[in-house]
């Protein structure tokens, strides 16, 4: 076995014990609230980790794109929600093929998308499960309850190639909440909207089984989400500085780090590492704990000041100026899902030893 | 042949005629200044395009990472500068192997890096060409002229596994300049520093042949860069909104676009496309021409307002509210190099017809 500090850099390291603790902690939250957990696989993009989530009790996984769903199906996941409108003939063909081998559900927020899915399904002699995505106030996708929802629902009634079995929503504005009180309020509010939408759809005769919501920041408050039957957090599996800010995990619970090497010491107070935006991306805000665009594990006084594509510029306080070219540093990123999308493999460690290397099989699947 | 609007999305489209015009225009700038052009291949990451640059007269290519150099060598490029310090035994082994099959030069700014390269070269019975990277005031990597440079140079004298044949610098602060006057000043200043550093090294007996500088924003002013013998712009090959802001290209000269599909019309003034940060990244600033985080070709009144990983949210003026689910839009990104690193292939078009699909072979090569 290889010590993680002997790995060539930059690379992604996942602490297996911390990851498993995160998986089980969030599963317990769902279990205690009496609802199902359907983790968003965008965070890990790795079937091996999806299987660990299923083994812990998750009902299935969520993905954003059809290409991610195909990878998860290939990796043995049998229940998949594509939380994204499928548009275009090439994707519809793939959707129908995929629906023939897994239990598949797809979100949609318009008649155009639903009608095209229905038509493709009819042609293939099948029926596709569809969840209506409503907008709980985030302003991204999702039909507006109630008036526009009612109108959409009426238009879907004649479509016999789809079966509307759920309502889903994503309250991305939960990331802006500054206090747990505000997060609880958003959680309760998004749940109330989704539950009411589900009632509206049921009153029109749709067999709504699932009311799905939640993000990592609000999932802790699942018991306040009255009417929700399922949560879909993603980032909880690894954690990152954005989630630390949101109070969802502590720095110590973050399971994913980037290992980087100091490649230049051009000034006493400056070190440059071999990882920039091509690893960390420019996603998200600076760390709230004053460490800039990352947190150097074991060196909380170093600031990750700025990135170029291949350079990470660190600012060193006097106590850290012994850092030398060749030294390796482990850094918790601002947004772990984005980091996972940049590289091709994860190094899974236990007690600092590399136990497995998993390909990030769904990396870059934007179609 | 396929019309580009029939492509599945999101995908990257490169207009071959515009790209070739950019390649020849910048080659002409170098030719007129009587210096060589060594394009930075990080922008395209594609050997086919590097070969077009070489055919147009480029002396070789620049890359940031060893992995990119290996891809370029595999793609038939014979003269490669790795403008990055190589650190660690795994990379040193690869460096030595690569030097045996192409004309290779590597940048360094410290004794530690140079000594390790020298040792590896000696062990292999070879000599590696090294260029000293100096800092022209950007504050990233690079040794400070003159005092630290002199000290570094003295320390390198005994190293017989390396041959110091050049000086290089990168004035990234040229991107902050707001006027051509300011850009000319930075260009002249970085050149003067590099030329003086070259003289210093020559006076110590180093056979300095190349004085290499320049970025896309300053390369237009190559004739003002007295003492420089080579420029290394990268982004000029495609252009993007950052370069439009820097006055380096016009919107019409931008050769790279992202083709995306409208997947939701949740409100009259809002459309959502199937490309977010997993295609566009969060690099760079908003467009200076008031179009947000992108420029929708043919629809200058649409604002690319914000991205999530898989969603691009557009704000539509009344004149654009006829946009429908399924419509495709071509968008010029803020930072093209970053976009190229996100996907696996480029679609090369002429007169809107897809002529070739080139793998982005050096995508994600961070090691």
TrEMBL record, chains A, B:
EC number(s) given by UniProt: 5.1.1.1
SMART domains in UniProt: D-ser_dehydrat
Q: Which residues form the D-serine dehydratase-like domain?
A: 255-350
Q: Which GO terms describe its molecular function?
A: alanine racemase activity
The answer to whether the entry has keyword Lyase is: yes
Give the top-level enzyme category. Answer: isomerase
Span-the-membrane segments of this chain are none
- What name does this protein carry? Alanine racemase
């Amino acid at each position: 076995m290889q010590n993680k500090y002997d790995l060539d850099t930059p690379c992604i390291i996942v602490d297996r014990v911390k990851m498993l603790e995160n998986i089980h902690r969030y599963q317990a939250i769902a279990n205690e609230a009496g609802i199902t957990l359907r983790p968003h696989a965008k965070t890990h993009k790795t079937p091996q980790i999806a299987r660990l989530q299923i083994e812990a009790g998750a009902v299935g996984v969520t993905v954003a794109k059809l290409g991610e769903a195909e990878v998860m199906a290939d990796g043995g996941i049998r229940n998949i929600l594509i939380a994204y409108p499928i548009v275009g003939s090439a994707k519809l063909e793939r959707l129908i093929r995929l629906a023939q081998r897994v239990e598949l559900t797809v979100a949609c927020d318009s008649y155009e998308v639903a009608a095209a899915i229905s038509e493709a399904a009819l042609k293939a002699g099948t029926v596709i499960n569809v969840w209506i995505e409503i907008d709980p106030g985030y302003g991204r996708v999702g039909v507006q309850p109630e008036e526009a929802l009612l109108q959409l629902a009426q238009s879907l009634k004649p479509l016999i190639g789809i079966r509307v079995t759920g309502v889903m929503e994503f309250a991305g504005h939960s990331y802006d909440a500054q206090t747990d009180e505000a997060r609880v309020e958003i959680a309760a509010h998004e749940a109330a909207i989704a539950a009411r939408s589900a009632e509206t759809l049921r009153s029109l005769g749709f067999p709504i089984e699932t009311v799905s919501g939640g993000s990592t920041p609000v999932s802790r408050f699942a018991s306040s989400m009255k009417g929700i039957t399922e949560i879909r957090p993603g980032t909880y599996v690894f954690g990152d500085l954005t989630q630390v800010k949101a109070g969802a995990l502590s720095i110590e619970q973050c399971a994913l780090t980037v290992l980087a090497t100091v490649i230049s010491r051009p000034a006493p107070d400056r070190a440059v590492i071999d990882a920039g935006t091509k690893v960390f991306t420019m996603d998200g805000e600076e760390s709230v704990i004053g460490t800039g665009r990352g947190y150097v594990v074991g060196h909380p006084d170093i600031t990750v000041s700025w990135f170029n594509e291949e350079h990470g510029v660190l600012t060193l306080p006097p106590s850290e100026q012994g850092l030398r070219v060749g030294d390796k540093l482990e850094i918790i990123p601002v947004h772990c899902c984005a980091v996972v999308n940049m590289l091709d493999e994860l190094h899974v460690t236990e007690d600092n030893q590399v136990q497995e290397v998993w390909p990030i099989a769904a990396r870059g699947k934007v179609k």
